[in-house]
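input
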Amino acid sequence: MRLGLLALCGPGLVVMLADTDAGSLITASQSGAQWGYRMVLPQVILMPVLYVVQEITVRLGIVTGKGHGALIRERFGLWWALVSAGTLFASAIGALLTEFAGIAGAGELFGISPSVTVPVATVFLVGLAMTGSYERVERIGIAVGLAELGFFAAAVMSRPRAGAVARAVGSLPLGNSSYLLLVAANVGAVIMPWMIFYQQGAVIDKKLSPGTIRQARLDTALGSVLTQLIMIAVVMTVAATLGLRDHSAALNTIGQIAGAVTPYLGHFGGTVLFGLGMLGAALVAAIVSSVAGAWGIAEVFGWKHTLNQRPSRQTAKFYVTYALAHIAGAVLVLASADLVSLSIDVMVMNAMLLPVVLGLLLALEARALPRQWRMRGIRKYLTWACCLLVMGLGVYMIPATLHWT
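output
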């Protein structure tokens, strides 16, 4: 019973809170400003899409007892393992850049320089992982990520109109290329390569057994709903304020978003709630993406890796990789003068990686699991359809984002 209760607030919830990271929240804000409540329904539709992808990682991790990178190497060879490690490393470093930029922006809202917030966050994140307890990392990640609940209070303060929401849901401009591009951006912001590696490794470090799969699925489902409700809260807050009055507001950074909504929500609603929510989102995403990156690379190269042991000779390579990722991300953010372009580049990169990441995930589900644990019938085809949708929309946004069209 105790294990089941812990599973309800475990890997699935942490990874989903991390999914609503700084880049995703900026995308949600832009969606609300440009298209108002018309971007609410796509967020609802993404709930089951997010769930079916992450649920596969739950079964793979619990049933096989092996991480994502290790399974790829075992089933498809070293070359594909190196490809997966490359995509993971790129996405994890990219995520860290985005999250550190978010941390810097949140600090600036309260008058704290990035030269202070970024190094402090780096020390905190590196020290947290080295405490020798996965449970501690998980609980602190959840506690930090729950700061995102402030977005619900901001949504209430914005006083969205139920009638306007209902009308917008029934009149989606699917023939508008600009709308479809922003839908694709939201899809690309939902499935991150590092999420797959993290949740599969986390259920192993948490020592979940096949008997707990039902609870782990519920954990993932609750997280999928919560993270998309947070996205909806941000969309509705911005739609009810800027979406009705100022479509041209620049919303490329946390500071710009908070500054734009503050005149409508006041200092507490606009600066404090949005600032702390963004800070919590960035911190939990930094924890998850960096742990996933270190786990995945260690699996591919056969290094010992676990958060349940303090640094030692056996785990040195894993922890050094984890620490260096943070240091590299912090240095790049502090040295970059254009964090907006940096965040856009990361979003495009994630979209380009999705076909490889999801393709390997589906292949593992079909080959690495015993037959009784594989998908069958309509469930299998619906899951494949969801993954193809994500891959297609992710690729769709690349040319326009890179100004090729």
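quick obs: The chain has 17 helices and no strands.
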